[in-house]
Amino acid sequence: MKVYSLDGITPVVHPSAYVHPSAVLIGDVIVGPDCYIGPAACLRGDFGRLELKKGANLQDTCVMHGFPGTDTVVEEDGHIGHGAVLHGCVIGKNALVGMNSVIMDGAVIGESSIVAAMSFVKAKMDVPARTLVAGSPARVIKELTDKEIDWKSAGTRQYQDLAVRSMNTMQEVEALTEVEADRPRMDVGIEGVVPKFKAES
């Protein structure tokens, strides 16, 4: 990983967390236990503090940043999808932020809520617990069922498992020049977890 101290403040990464070597951590960044930070994620703690709590994940190309004097926090088991931007906000325990969404300053995403992909959550929006929000600007769509929250939680467990798999088996190698005759498939996951669109059909 690329880790940079700034003004004498050095990022902290718990030994059980996995941070991809291409991710960038600058300054006041705290990555808690069992977290996963994906490829090309950028955590710029050069103004405010950035913190991921136990079991949270921040996937590839995500950005975390904030204004001076603010904390940008992903609470325990928070799940941040590919390409999302978090700026001076709080993502509640077990909440999910969908791919390419933007969460602005002062916004709070309630516990076990879901922000749909490509949503824009305005500054200071308070998303109630256990709700689905979507759109640009985002608005409350519905209350989530236990089944939907269980589906989210199972997906987060996959990323917690991926942190362990990555620490144990990921290594930089040279690419092969042809496909092996007996090439295995990457069919690793949690039993019973399928994409939402398949689960609904």
UniProtKB/TrEMBL annotation:
Domain of life of the source: Bacteria
Gene3D superfamilies named in the record: Hexapeptide repeat proteins (2.160.10.10)
InterPro entries in the cross-refs: Hexapep, PaaY, Transf_Hexapept/Carb_Anhydrase, Trimer_LpxA-like_sf
CDD domains: LbH_paaY_like
PANTHER family: DYNACTIN SUBUNIT P25 (PTHR13061), GAMMA CARBONIC ANHYDRASE-LIKE 1, MITOCHONDRIAL-RELATED (PTHR13061:SF29)
Protein name in the entry: Phenylacetic acid degradation protein
Organism (species): Amphritea atlantica
Upper classification of the organism: Bacteria, Pseudomonadati, Pseudomonadota, Gammaproteobacteria, Oceanospirillales
